User: Which sequence fits this backbone?
């Protein structure tokens, strides 16, 4: 998409982006003129006070840049709560840990439904790096469920002691920094980011040994000119979760594919995507700090990382299959009673967005990893696609 097709940011936003570009260029200069795309993506999203997720601009909902499933309908959180409740009931002192809770909407919907199901956790910890988002989450919880405010705690790091927990990461993995690579003339090259006239610019350079070996380990026969990405931070993150999880489960919800689909020959430009005011495009160097930068998740890599640290893959399926398994049909029927015609129509449209293959239903996947949980998981009872990994 051409830059002219995008709405122009305001002067204040552009000034913030310019400050971030200056900070990025300073680091690039110290690094010798280039950094890997993964480091650029990390700074663009998380640079203190200026990165996309660290700044104060609206990100979620109609006035932001994208809409997450919890923002679409409370039915999403209510259905997910049924899976969380089933898991908490198998833990003696089970808590919930949510990564990157966004606006706080999912936490509110989960706790509201968990109370209905008589399955409230011992505590609900939100791991949030952004001070601005943490403040927004606290405000949302205070306004929506003040009676449960004492359940919540915030950290900017993993708990230091082992826990019995249900860990939730909804649209977290897609925002992890990735390396970009291409296959050219029988070798692999890495996307690098430098600076010119105070702005980030990209080029191709030689892959490091570590990156070359990681690409080779994918066991994919890449065509000439094929470009894509790989997340080298995924495995250490799964390893860190395993270190703190004494017993419980990890629920990962994100858009992505099994490896054979992720690196399909037809997907020859990769999955990197940017979002600005609900418009998707692929220019990750545009207006750093003002737009989201994401890549899809290689769920085969997630399963491999989990297996390496003795976590069990307990299910993998599409979002629509998962919500059906969690009984969203019953929740829809129950919530429809007493709705006006207008509200009924709005709910139907929201359900379509959550469930239809052309919307979130198919491209979003759900994966469960567990330790010490023997019972089959509710959300994967309708259709489990683990065999496709």
Assistant:
């Amino acid at each position: 998409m051409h830059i002219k097709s995008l709405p122009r940011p305001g002067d204040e936003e552009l000034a913030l982006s310019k400050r971030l570009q200056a900070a990025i260029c300073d680091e690039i200069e110290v690094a010798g003129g280039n950094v890997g795309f993964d480091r650029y993506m990390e700074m663009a999203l998380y640079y203190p006070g200026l990165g996309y997720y660290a700044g104060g601009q609206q990100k979620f909902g109609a006035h932001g840049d994208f809409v997450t499933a919890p923002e679409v309908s409370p039915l999403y959180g209510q259905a997910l709560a049924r899976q969380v409740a089933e898991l908490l009931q198998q833990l003696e002192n089970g808590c919930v840990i949510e990564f990157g809770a966004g606006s706080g909407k999912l936490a509110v919907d989960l706790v509201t439904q968990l109370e209905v199901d008589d399955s409230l956790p011992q505590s609900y910890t939100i791991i949030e790096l952004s001070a601005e988002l943490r403040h927004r989450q606290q405000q949302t919880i205070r306004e929506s469920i003040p009676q449960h405010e004492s359940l919540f705690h915030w950290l900017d790091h993993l708990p230091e002691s082992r826990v019995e927990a249900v860990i939730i990461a909804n649209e977290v993995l897609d925002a992890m920094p990735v390396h970009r690579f291409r296959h050219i003339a029988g070798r692999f090259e890495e996307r690098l980011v430098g600076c010119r006239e105070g702005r980030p610019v990209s080029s191709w350079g030689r892959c490091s040994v570590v990156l070359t070996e990681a690409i080779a380990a994918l066991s994919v026969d890449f065509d000439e000119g094929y470009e894509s990405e790989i997340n080298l931070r995924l495995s250490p993150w799964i390893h860190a979760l395993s270190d703190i999880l004494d017993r419980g489960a990890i629920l990962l919800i994100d858009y992505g594919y099994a490896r054979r689909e992720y690196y399909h020959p037809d997907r020859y430009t990769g999955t990197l995507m940017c979002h600005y005011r609900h418009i998707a495009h692929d220019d990750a160097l545009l207006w750093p700090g003002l737009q989201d930068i994401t890549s899809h998740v290689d769920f085969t890599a997630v399963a491999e990382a989990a297996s390496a640290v003795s976590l069990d893959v307990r299910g993998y399926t599409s979002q629509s299959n998962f919500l059906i398994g969690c009984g969203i049909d019953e929740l829809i029927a129950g919530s429809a009673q007493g709705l006006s015609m207008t509200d009924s129509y709005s709910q139907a449209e929201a359900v379509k967005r959550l469930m239809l293959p052309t919307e979130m239903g198919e491209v979003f996947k759900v994966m469960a990893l567990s330790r010490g949980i023997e019972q089959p998981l509710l959300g994967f009872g309708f259709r489990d696609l683990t065999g496709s990994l």
In short: The mean pLDDT is 92. Residues 10-388 form a domain with the Rossmann fold fold (CATH 3.40.50.12710).
